[in-house]
Amino acid sequence: MSAPIDNASSSSLPVQKVTTAQKNKAWKESSVDYYLNFRYTNGSNLRSDRSKKITNYDLYNGVINKSDVEAICNPLGYTGNTWADKFMHYDKISEPIRLLIGEESAKPDNSLVVSEAPDDLDRKQANLKKKLLFALNQQLQAEIDPASVDPNNPPPTPEQIVKAEQYSPSDLIESKANRLLKILKKKLNTKWLFNQGFKDALIAGEEVYWTGILNGEPALRKCNTLNITVILDDDCVFYDDAIAVVEERMLTIPSIIDEYGDQLSNETRDKLIEYSRGTFGSFNTAGGFEPTMQIVDGRAVINGATPTSSFNGNNVNNYAVRVARVEWISMKKIGFLSYTDEEGQPQMEQVDDTFGSSFKLFQETFPDAELEWDWINEAWEGVKIGADIYLDIRAKENQRRRMDNPYYCKLGYTGYIYEATNSRSVSLIDRLKPYQYLYDIIAFRLELAFASDKGKVFLMDMASIPRSEGIDVDQWMYYLNEMKIAFVNSHEESGKGAQQGKTSNFNQFTAIDLSLANSIQSYINYLQYIEQQIYTVSGITPQRLGSINNSELVGNTERAVNQSSLITEYLFTAHNEVIRRVYGSLIEVAKIAYKDGSVQQYVSDDMGIEMLRLEEFEFENSEFSVAVFTIASALLIS
């Protein structure tokens, strides 16, 4: 028997190629702590910086990072009554983003679950063959005895049967799998989750989801990209291809119990309450880490540490505790057992590493049995709450595998890093951000020009005011403003200085033009140009936004909208691929969660109430894949 591995240090990853017996408590906790050492701050070869993502989210919500434009607006670095107090943000880039989010929400959620298991495929082929033979027999009978066929309800032709099988699964297993996915869509509100994930993709350049089992039920959650650390191969952009994923969140005690209630002991619950109260005197001890804070635009924000959900703005949630979920790829020893059964048929089975001690006993029954050992990937998971609470560090119950490839293994996180081929990820807001900054700077200059504009100024000699007629300066200004009359007396005598007693010889009454109209018009033209550039770079034309001139022809408008849709279609294509992978993961999770059977009730598309009964181990030998249909493919099918 192998000795257990004792590796309590988190500075290096414990050896993963060890047997199940060697994966003891110390090995499990050291593996979790090792991956918790990685924290997402400055990005990677693929992911953009975390601070950059925060700036993007703020910009979408109408908050500009003024330090990004300070070099232009305040080149001398003046620290007195600063420009930042007057600088205003004029949002121009959220409209294209909101349009794309709305279009994603309006797209139909069409999907189809099909089985790839050999047994299911054989059964489908046999049922299809049976239906075709029955249809041919009915056709033959109709030719022999036409009166035996109801003309109002003729039997389907073989071509119609084949076409129906292509688009509507009649196999019982596939039919139940499709109904189950429909139930999960409504129960988990996947439409809204995917819409919010698409919003993350447009703003942060990433969207991430987690699928798993919580309290015995399938679960799907959209993850905050700011709280995720992922370890990928250099050329991988999908999260489900990751070697490890770390997610750190700040959760309150009720939320922790809601997610992990079936794993918490009474002693652990008491400790969580102590943590939330800060019993040990500091949030560092209670929460698990001490965030570094800095002041940006008058707000206390976290500096380079995760998570941030409880540290945005000035409201620090002292009742939240850090909850870190770690999933990683480990290794598992398995055996391939081959033998000839009692009926003389060759058999091949897969056994775990505990079977080695029973192999000799098995050979007594099957003398020709052979056992060959190998190592495959295995997904592990663990949760660490606060500083020292570990929950169920174990091999994932829902191992995402393929029957034809034992080495295939995926984690529970599914997501995509957009526009990251041989470069760091670039979101749509990243592309529009320079134009938004430029727009705000020009608008700032325009505000200063408006404030400095004096228009035309009337120039006259103060000595010409007819004081001898009882009109002082205040009265003269009143007549000028209210009656538009400027009274003057060319023979008015000066009462002061060397000109006392003399009349004024000044008669050049005129107006000085102090207007900045030309500069103001230039700034307005600049703003219009920048706005047009935003449309060009985003691919969202004014016609697609609904701004159509009366002089535009219908054909030109349709062409502009279609061309704009083609420019942004790559975003929807990538998003649909993520949805397909998430649904595939979700249906595999449901197979494990409902392995003991389940009864579900759901509302059908025609508002009818239907029941779905899953028998015990009904999906055990099935392997599903999911296809997601776009609008074009849905129209083709219809």
Structural notes for this entry:
- The chain is α+β, with helices and mostly antiparallel strands.
- Helices cover 38% and strands 21% of the residues.
- The chain is built from 17 helices and 19 strands.
- Strands 4, 5, 8, 9, 10 and 11 form a 6-stranded antiparallel beta sheet that branches.
- It is elongated.
- The two termini are 62 Å apart.
| Bulk shape | elongated
| Largest β-sheet summary | 6 strands, antiparallel
Strand content: 15-25%
Mean pLDDT: 81
β-strand number: 19
Helix proportion of residues, in percent? 25-40%
Structural class: alpha+beta
- Ranges where pLDDT stays below 50 over 5 or more residues in a row are 1-8, 279-316, 632-638
Cα-to-Cα separation, first versus last residue = 62 Å
How many helices does DSSP assign? 17
Radius of gyration: 36 Å
Keywords:
alpha+beta, six-stranded antiparallel beta sheet, 19 strands, 38% helix, 21% strand, elongated, disordered N terminus
Task: Summarize this structure briefly.
This protein has 17 helices and 19 strands.
How would the blueprint of this fold be written?
Elements (H helix, E strand, L loop, with lengths): L24 H12 L13 H11 L9 H4 L20 H13 L3 E6 L2 H27 L13 H10 L4 H17 L1 H15 L1 E9 L2 E6 L5 E4 L12 E9 H8 L5 H11 L6 H5 L5 E4 L2 E4 L17 E21 L5 E7 L6 H7 L4 E16 L3 E7 L4 E3 L2 E6 L2 E5 L10 H25 L3 E4 L13 H11 L26 E4 L3 H22 L15 H40 L4 E6 L5 E6 L9 E6 L1 H7 L1
Antiparallel strand pairs: 1-19, 2-3, 2-14, 4-5, 5-8, 6-7, 8-9, 8-10, 10-11, 12-13, 15-16, 17-18
Helix pairs in contact: 4-8, 5-6, 7-16, 13-15
